[in-house]
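Reproducibility note. Readers wishing to regenerate the assembly model reported in the main text can use the exact inputs given here. Chain order matters: entities are listed in the order in which they were concatenated for prediction.
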Amino acid sequence: MLLQIKNLHASIQGKEILKGVNLEVNRGEVHAIMGPNGTGKSTLASVIAGRDIYEVTAGEVVFNSLNLLDMPVEQRAREGIFLGFQYPVEIPGVSISNFLRTALNDIRKYKGLEPMPATEFLAKMEEKKKLVEIHSKLTNRSVNEGFSGGEKKKNEIFQMAMLEPILSILDETDSGLDIDALRIVAGGVNSLRSEKNATIVITHYQRLLEYIVPDFVHVLYEGRIIKSGGKELALELEEKGYDWLKNGG
Amino acid sequence: MILSDITNFDQIFRENLKTIGRRDTEIVSEYRADALNHLLRLGLPTSSNERWRNTDISKALQTDYSIFFEDFQDQLKPEDYFTCEVAGLDTWLITLLNGWYTFKNSPLRILPSGTIIGSLSRAMVECPELVENHLGKAADNSENAFTAMNSAFATDGFFIYVPDGVEVTKTIQMVNVVSHTDPIFVQTRNLVILGKNSKLRLAHCDDSHNHNPGFTNSVTEIIMAENSNLDHYKLQNINDHSTLINNTYIHQEAGSKCTTNALSLHGGFIRNEIFVKLNGRESSVDVYGLYLMDKKQAVDNYVFIDHAAADCTSTEMFKGILDDYAHAVFNGHILVRKDSQRTIAYQSNRNILLTDKAQINSKPFLEIYADDVKCSHGATVGQLDTNAMFYLRSRGISEDNARLLLMYAFAAEIINKISIESLRDRLDDMVKKRLRGELSICDQCVLHCKTPDKPIEFEIDLSKV
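Running the prediction on these inputs yields the following C-alpha cells for the assembly.
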C-alpha cells in the first residue's frame, strides 16, 4: 500500500477540521475526493503535504512505509509527495527554471545523487513543457507572477512532471480553468499516470472527472469520509447533490 | 587626530595650508577658506541634528586617525591592490589608494574623443578652467559639515570630463581602496563633468583591504549638461571597523537622464547622501539602493531630490535585508518647487528584518509647493512570506535554500536595474555570495585582490528567521 491514512484528526487555531479521516491509496490508482465547501478537502491535502499551520491531534499517515507526520515539508516532497496548489503562490524574482533546478538538485542530494547537469536539466524542461503546452518564454519568468489562472495551473502540472512524484495531490486544479485549459491540464495529468504512482484529485465538480477518470470517489463531509465508491458515485453526486448523504444516506 | 574636536580643524588647516593648497588656483583657494568657515560654524553633526537623528556617528569621531596632506606612499605598486578585472567588463580603470591617485604625477589621460580621465589634483594644473567652472557648483558647504570639511581639506580624487556630444563606450571604473596599518582618515573629492548630449557609465567602488579602521569622507560632484546621460553605480564593500561617508551631488540640466544605484554589501558604518537638483525641464533621475547588513553594521541612506524645474521625473527605490543587530536608516526628501508643474516623483523603501534586534528607521518626506504633481511614497518592513516558504519547501527545497531564494528575489529587483550586463552578472553573483555568507571583503567590487581571502565572519544566520 502506498498511502494509508488512519483516523486523522487535524485542527487550525483550536478548531477541529478533520475529524477522523481514513483513506487507503495503492500505486496505479486515481482517487477523487469530493465534497461541499469547507468540509476539509484542502486541509487534508495540506496536512499530507506538511503545512505547519495545521495541528495533527490524532491519527497517522503512512506513506511508502514511512511515518509522514514526523517529516518536515521538504522531506515529504523528496520522498515523493507533490501538492498541486489550489492557489499557487506568486514569487517575484525567482525564475521557474532556477526554482525547479534548486528543487531537483535538493531532491537529488537527499537521494545521494550528484546535481543534474545543466544540459540534461534544460532538455528535461523542454520535454515536459510540451506536455502541458507551456511556451518556452514562461519558464524564464518569475514563478506564477502575473500568470493567468490557466497558466498557474499548467505550471503546477509542469512542476509535477519535472519532479516525478510518487503521490500527487491536486487541490482544486480545475478551479478557474476554461475548458481548453482544463483539457490541457487533465491531459498532462493523464500522461503522467503509471503503475508506479498514484493521484488524489480534489474537486467540487464532476466535470474534471470526465477528463481524469478516477478509480475511486470519496465524499468528505464535516471532516470525515462518509461515502466511497467507484467513478459512478461522482455522477450520482452531480445529479443528486450532497444533501442525500448528509442525512446518513 | 580626533575628529570630534572641531577646533582641531582650524589649527590643522592653518598649519598645513601650503601643502593642502599647493596646486590650488586662486578661486579654488578661496573656495577652501570659505568651506572651512562653514565647517567651523556648523560643527560636526550629533543626534540632535534632524538629519542625523537615527544615526550615532560619535564613536567613529572619537577614534584617533592619521591624516595626510601629501601622498606618503612612495613604494606603491598599484598592481598589488588593483588586479584581475572581471571577464567581459572592459573598463577604463582609475584607482585611489587611501585617497591618493595611484599613478601619481602621471598626466591626465586624454582619449581621442577628447574625454579626460585622471586625478583632480592633476586637473587643477592641466585644465584649471574646467575645475574652477564646476567645482562647488553642485555641492553645498553651507549646510553639510562633512561636505564643508571635504571642500576645505581634500586634495585629490577622480576627475572625469566628457565633451559635448561624446559617448564614452567603455565603462569608467573608479576604485577607492583604504588600506593602512593605523586608523586613517581619507578625504577624496571627485568631479565628473558631462557635456551636452554626452553619455557615460560610471562604476564607483569603495573597498577596504584589511581589517583596520578607516574613515573615508568622500564628496562626488556630477554636473550634467543638457540631454546628457549617466549610469552611475556605487559599490560598497568595506570592513566592519570602517566608516564611509559618501556625499554625491548631481546637478542636472534640461533633458538629462541619470540613474544612480548604491549597492552596500558590507560595511561598519556607511552613510550615503545623494542630492539631486533637477534644474532643467524634462530631466529625470532614478535613485536605487540595496543594502545587505548584519552583525552591528549600519547603513544610512539620505536622498534629497530637488524638483527645481517643470516636467521632471524622479524615482527612488531602496531595499534592504538586515540580520542580527544591523541598523539601517532611510530618509527620502522630495522637494517640488512652486513652478515645477507636472512633476512625477515616486519613492519606496522596503525592508526585510531577519531578527527582532535588527532595526530600520524609514522616513519619507514630501515637500510640495506645486499643484499639478504626481507623487507617491511607501515604506514596508516585513519578514519572509510564509506562504512562499511553504510553496518552495513543498517542492523539496531545503529551508535554507528557500530562504536564500526569497532573499535573493527581494534583492534582485534592484540588481536587475543594472544596465551593464557583465556588471549585473558580477553583482548578482556577489549578492548571492553575500546572502550565503561567502563574500569576503577581498572579493570586492569588480576586482579580485591577490591577497588570500580573510576568514569569513559576517554571514547571515539562516536559522533565525
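We highlight two features of this model. Chain B touches chain A through 23 residues (CB under 8 Å). Residues 83-87, 441-465 of chain B have pLDDT under 50 and may be disordered.
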